[in-house]
UniProtKB/TrEMBL annotation:
Pfam families for this protein: Barstar (PF01337)
InterPro entries reported for this sequence: Barstar, Barstar-like_sf
Lineage of the species this protein comes from: Bacteria, Pseudomonadati, Pseudomonadota, Gammaproteobacteria, Methylococcales
Record protein name field: Barstar (Barnase inhibitor)
Entry similarity comment: Belongs to the barstar family.
């Protein structure tokens, strides 16, 4: 399992959110910087590299500064896991945070 940490305030707006994930997970140059593209790129990353653990420090800051991204991160991670397990695979994304 690959483990990553991020401070909640680093993801404080959509631009910073997508910057973090594009750089950290080496998304391709054609990454569309929206949550549909995020789903696809994270799924591809996890399928190539295995289970990913993402720990969000100070998640309350992310939730306060960018509540839409906070909710999207939870929902999209759940969707990636559902899509994988629905086909008989294993979960791909583990989120760890406390609000």
């Amino acid at each position: 399992m690959k483990k990553f940490r991020v401070e909640g305030n680093v993801l404080k707006d959509w631009e910073k959110f997508h910057d973090f994930f594009a750089k950290t997970f080496e998304f391709p140059g054609y990454y569309g910087r929206n949550m549909d593209a995020w789903n696809d790129c994270m799924s591809d990353y996890c399928c190539s590299n295995g289970l990913v653990s993402l720990h969000i420090d100070n998640a309350n800051e992310l939730k306060a500064q960018n509540p839409d991204a906070f909710e999207a991160l939870i929902e999209c991670s759940a969707f990636i896991n559902w899509r994988s397990t629905d086909k008989g695979g294993e979960p791909l994304v583990v989120l760890s945070f406390y609000v």
